[in-house]
């Protein structure tokens, strides 16, 4: 059986035809994306923080300075955060202004973050994070030390309350407008990793890194 | 004199060396970016909604269905929303795990949204929005009508409380690690508009649209 992530909070109201709730599809979009936007509040004010993320199994992880607001605030005062991550896939040009849109893959997650404090588990997660960003790189790095581990705050939420919205199609105009004489269609957005820029202070040549499979 | 957007709320605490507060720089990043993440709350729950935006002068605009939560909630119950928009420019690969990072241009805005209800002003803004997305296209479209104007909710905030964070440099490792034998540097992210995909139900050839200068 496929696990559904739908709950009253994550149920899509506007554009429900674009909604999906299965965990596997959410995992795929999460893994193909490098960054998310974490929404939380402090003293009644909402904050949105762009942050890199990764996933292991049913858990979604992010990190920051142990004392940063985007790490400490939802722990000091337990709160259900809302996180969105999305990929912009193209621009949808319709025959009428209102039916213009964008193609996208988008995931919204809800959960009360949990702070990971166990040193071994933290290091295990940092390696998973690095493997997402550049597979195989961890073992070539200067080993991590205790000061760095302590300085880093690590949070996770379980992926169990979430929604997916995907748009991947040509414009959908009012049928009466289909013959309107203007170009209509999709302008796809392309993303790729460009030529490596080695640190100018590095003079030796080393094996080049593998870029990630995520953007 | 340059206008500063710094306030106690928008003052960057972590990584203040990467902070800027001048309006012109914020305008440039806003104009070069197609989408933002709007953070607001309803009944005590934070929501983060990916949304397209545009700018005219000192005002930042977004739209949605007049009854959508991301339009109605901050109006029904006036609230200072937090909006972030950012461009991921590259992956920063350091010699130690902890100094890995990303290059980026990021703007965070705060403001209490204002609902624009005047029909003429709404249409004027929709044209500005379309000119951002595809310059010169508005006049070729099937003209907008009253039902569409009424169905669309238009919000704006004044750009007066905001912060910019930019990272655009090679890795910054601990000086002791600079000779560590592993490739270090930046993997730049490239974005471009791909070949146009005309709506398959359209059989005639028309002048092709101009893609936007924003991603
Ligand atoms: C693409 C991207 C990925 C990132 N990934 C990570 C990550 O994985 N881990 C991490 O720790 N940090 C990451 N950052 C930086 C992150 O956005 C925050 O700046 C940082 O986490 C400090 O958060 P804080 O809540 O403690 O900020 P504070 O410094 O306490 O925030 C105070 C004020 O500073 C301003 N501010 C904070 N962050 C930003 C921003 N990004 N842009 C504009 N204004 C800002 C806001 O006005 C905010 O109200 C990333 C940034 C970008 C753009
Ligand atoms: C790149 C991008 C640009 C967009 N630009 C616009 C725009 O300019 N104007 C506009 O009206 N809409 C835009 N959308 C859609 C927008 O994100 C919302 O889906 C829509 O505005 C409805 O918002 P709401 O708060 O009324 O949602 P509701 O349907 O009331 O939200 C209920 C629940 O549905 C889920 N949900 C809602 N939106 C999303 C989402 N995007 N991804 C995953 N789950 C979601 C959440 O779990 C949420 O709690 C854009 C989406 C993307 C990805
Ligand atoms: C300028 C005139 C425009 C008007 C009057 C208009 C109107 C609307 C309305 C009413 C909705 C809500 C649909 C619903 O929730 O039922 C909507 C949604 C949306 N609009 Fe627009 N729009 C305009 C232009 C654009 C442009 C130029 C873009 C982007 C290029 C855009 C992107 C979107 C997106 C992404 C959605 C969400 C639809 C979805 O999630 O599938 N709109 N618009
Ligand atoms: C895996 C081991 C890692 C550790 C221990 C670690 C630790 C930290 C710490 C402590 C901070 C806070 C700095 C501060 O606010 O003073 C931070 C910030 C950050 N980290 Fe990491 N990090 C790791 C890997 C990564 C990776 C792989 C990336 C992305 C590719 C990354 C991206 C960032 C970014 C973008 C910031 C914000 C810095 C800025 O805004 O300039 N980190 N990290």
TrEMBL record, chains A, B:
Name this polypeptide is given: Nitroimidazol reductase NimA-like FMN-containing flavoprotein (Pyridoxamine 5'-phosphate oxidase superfamily)
Originating species: Marinomonas pollencensis
């Amino acid at each position: 059986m496929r696990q559904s992530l739908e709950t009253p909070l994550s149920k899509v109201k506007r554009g429900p035809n674009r909604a999906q709730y299965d965990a596997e599809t959410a995992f795929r979009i999460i893994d193909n994306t490098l960054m998310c936007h974490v929404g939380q509040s402090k003293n009644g004010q909402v904050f949105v923080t762009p942050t890199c993320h990764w996933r292991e199994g049913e858990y979604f992880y992010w990190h920051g300075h142990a004392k940063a607001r985007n790490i400490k605030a939802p722990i000091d005062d337990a709160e259900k955060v809302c996180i969105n991550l999305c990929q912009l896939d193209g621009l949808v040009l319709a025959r009428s202004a209102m039916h213009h849109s964008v193609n996208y893959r988008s995931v919204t997650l809800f959960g009360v973050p949990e702070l990971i404090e166990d040193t071994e588990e933290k290091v295990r997660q940092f390696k998973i994070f690095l493997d997402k960003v550049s597979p195989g790189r961890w073992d070539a790095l200067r080993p991590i030390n205790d000061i760095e581990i302590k300085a880093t705050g690590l949070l996770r939420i379980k992926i169990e309350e979430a929604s997916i919205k995907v748009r991947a199609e040509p414009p959908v105009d009012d049928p009466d407008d289909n013959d309107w004489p203007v170009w209509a269609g999709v302008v796809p957005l392309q993303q790729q990793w460009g030529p490596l820029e080695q640190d100018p202070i590095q003079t030796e040549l080393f094996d080049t890194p593998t870029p990630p499979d995520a953007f």
